[in-house]
Structures are given as C-alpha cells and as structure tokens.
Amino acid sequence: MKGSIQIRQKTCYACPVACRNVVRLQEIEEKESPYGGPKYEAVASLGSLLLVDDPYVITRLNHRCNDLGLDVISACVSVSFLLECLERGILSSEEIGFKVDWGDEEGIVQVLEEIAAKKGIGHLLSQGVKRAAAELGPGAEEIAVHVKGLEVAMHDPRGKKGMGLSYATSHKGADHMEVMHDEAFQRDNALPELGLTEGIDRRRLKGKAELVKKTQEYWGTMADCLVICKFFMTPSRPFTSDRIIKSINYITGWDMSLDEYMETGERIFNLCRMYNLREGMEPRKEDKLPVRFSVVLSKGGSKGESISEDLFKQELEDYYELRGWKEGVPTEETLKRLKLDFTLEE
C-alpha cells in the first residue's frame, strides 16, 4: 500500500495510531479518494476473497462499496458466494444476465451495484447469503459462510479458535469485534487483572471459554457502550483497565470498580441474549459455525487446522456453564443475580 495507493495517513484528534489511509484510485492520479483507503477487512474481502491482487482495483472496489453504502464484509462474502455458485453450476451466467468471474473488476462492480439497487441477482444477494442459499436450495447452503445470518468476517476461526466460539455465541453472528483476538493471548499475563494469566495458543480450542466470555464483556460489550476505540484496549496498548475505570469515574463522578465494570458487561450481554430469545432465537440451532470450518486448511500459517464439531460442542458447553446458561438460555438464578429477572415476564 505504501508503495502504491497510499498518499498519506490521517488520524482522529490526538491519536498516535493514524489508521485512516488517504489513497489514490489510479496509478497516475494525485487526487485522493474522498472516502479514504481500505483497511484490513476491505483488503481481505475485496482482495484475497475475490482473488483480486491489484491494490488499485481493491481501492476502487472499496470506494464503490462506500459510495453505495455497502458493508465490505457482507457484500464481498455475498459476491464470493455468487462466484462459487457459478463455479459449481448452482447458477449460470445466463440466469444472472451477465458474466462475472474471480478477480474481474468490471463484473464485481456490476454485482455490487445490483446488490445496492436490489435488482437482478442483486435482489437475492441483498438479503445476505443465508436467505440467498435457502432460496437456491441444495448445494448452496453448504457453501454459505455465515453465523446467525451475518456473513463471516475476514478472520478464519480455524487459525484462532476463540474467535470461532465468539462468532457462534455473539448476538448478531460472525462479528470480529465482539471478542479480543486469540493471538494477543499467546503470551503469559496478557490481562492478569481479568485472571487471564496463562498463555494459550491461538490454534487451541480447549480452554478458550473463559477468555471469550471475559473479553466479550470487557472489550466487545463495554467498549461499544463507552464509545472507546477498541484498538487502544487490547493487551500491551495504553488504555489499560486501570485507566478505563479512572476515566469513567472522573467523567461521571461514580466510584465504579473493575468488578462492577465487568458485571455491567455481563448484564448487558445477558440482556441481549434474552432479547434474541424473545424474538425467537433457538440457541442449539444457531450457536454454531458453518460446516466449512470443519474442513482442514491445506496451506498457509494455519495449515492442518480445522474445528472439530465434537470439540467445539464440548467448549460451547463449558462456555454455557461459565455464563450460567442452560442450553444457551440464562437460568433464573443468573438473571436474578444480574437484576434481569424482569425479562422472565416476556
């Protein structure tokens, strides 16, 4: 990126990270894109996932998604789903009305525009891969990569298995911002104040339930409620738990402790679960991962890794037990402890 599309980096006020890329869309162009440049999720979903290896094409596709108001993860997982359906003969070019292939900028743009306009094949894809696969029938559902209807983010849980447990138990599905990522916890004493003192390999599933539960509350839930940049809250970053608590108390005049902070996160997480249950969620059917993640990776940094269905079920049970849930449902005792027993009426 630095040697091609990037013009400079920008920052939110007083932030040293400067994560906002200012980029050009063409090799000979000095004018910058008004929407900024692609970050990791865009590079991975518009690039690797669609077999696009030109940074300028990735930048233009990212610009188009922003212009159309499309989330790059859901949009590109949907486009790749379409491309695989075409590759497998589940759909044909004649049926969708035009030709599109992996790495084809013009064809990919046309699919994105049809999704935004909800016309042609875009009307089907605009509903997401879960509904699209259900409509297309046999063969399609096996390749639809989603959790609870949300397309999976650009973090393969075979390479960091705690992420997989979080995908499965998250309120909205495969969201990569619900839990701290496994690689931060491969060293000892990553977050000792939360009791996370022993390093655990990113590829290991056994023992991840505690890590997932605690960081879903500490990071995934509370950071969103406080509107804090999550990049600063990960292990070794400056916004430590001590600084978070001091900041909250300074701003509000409260006297909150870390234990109260964590219980607040737990209460919110359980309230979200109760909301989903009220709306018809079936935990045993929905707290799961796509079948594709049981397939062994054949190459790359996580070569040989997969997620065993049996091992996953065991760790999910441990997670439920830690949360005080039975079959994915908060028990009456848990709800009373968290002062959420009013939800039982609904």
Question: Overview of this structure, please?
Answer:
- The chain is built from 14 helices and six strands.
- By secondary structure, the protein is mainly alpha-helical.
- The chain folds into two domains: 6-144, Aldehyde Ferredoxin Oxidoreductase Protein, subunit A, domain 2 (Orthogonal Bundle); 155-345, Aldehyde Ferredoxin Oxidoreductase Protein, subunit A, domain 3, CATH 1.10.599.
- Helix 1 packs across helix 2, helix 1 packs parallel to helix 3 (72-88) and helix 2 (55-68) packs parallel to helix 5.
- The longest helix is centred in the last third of the chain and has 21 residues, at 258-278.
- It is globular.
- The mean pLDDT is 95.
Beta strand %: under 5%
Radius of gyration over alpha carbons? 22 Å
Major sheet strand order = 1-2
What's the pLDDT, averaged over the residues? 95
Instruction: Please provide the count of β strands.
Output: 6
CATH topology of the largest domain: Aldehyde Ferredoxin Oxidoreductase Protein, subunit A, domain 3
- The helix-and-strand class reads mainly alpha
Query: What count of structural domains?
Result: 2
SSE topology string: EEHHHHHHHEEHHHHHHEEH
CATH architect. name of the largest domain: Orthogonal Bundle
Gross geometry: globular
N/C terminus separation: 52 Å
CATH class of the largest domain: Mainly Alpha
* Largest sheet properties: 2 strands, antiparallel
- Enumerate how many helices there are, as a single number: 14
